[in-house]
Input
Amino acid sequence: MAGIETTFARLTAELDAPMLIVTTEAAGERAGCLVGFWTQSSIRPPRFLVCLSRLNHTYKVAVRARSLLVHFVPEGATGLAELFGGETGDEVDKFARVEWHRGPDGAPLLAGVDTWFSGEVVERIGLGDHVGFLLAPVEGTVHRTEEPRLRFHRARRIAPGHPA
Ligand SMILES: Cc1cc2nc3c(=O)[nH]c(=O)nc-3n(C[C@H](O)[C@H](O)[C@H](O)COP(=O)(O)O)c2cc1C
Output
């Protein structure tokens, strides 16, 4: 019988979550990465949990930020997914390579992504090698298009820019 870690890895490989790009800004520093670990966690009040690896550049900026900007990624936005999931802000300036403008709370709002929300960080929770950022949605917009969202099974071909 396979060990529990192997079984767990096989089980989680079946999950096919839509991917997010989470951006943030603190003291003039911008960061963002591709995120597959997330969930809505409450209806009233509305709450949303985003999990960031403690090793990521994005985490280091996010711990100092008031809010995070959550983008829902369309399937066709492979360039954005590769940049935010395959490169690290420790080495490159991702925001010099994409179009964006200042969104809520100064966080970078990515051009070409029309479904997003900004959430205030109301709690940070240690969850293992990732930290959960519990968000209270403040502002956002949702566009319904025929285009499906980018999901984990397609995005996992991207080699993460940072070891988790
Ligand atoms: C399919 C996929 C899912 C990912 N999910 C997460 C995640 O849930 N949380 C996270 O912190 N990083 C996740 N990553 C890793 C980061 O997006 C990646 O290491 C990125 O390069 C980190 O950039 P940064 O160092 O600029 O923050 C994922 C990467 C891929 C390819």
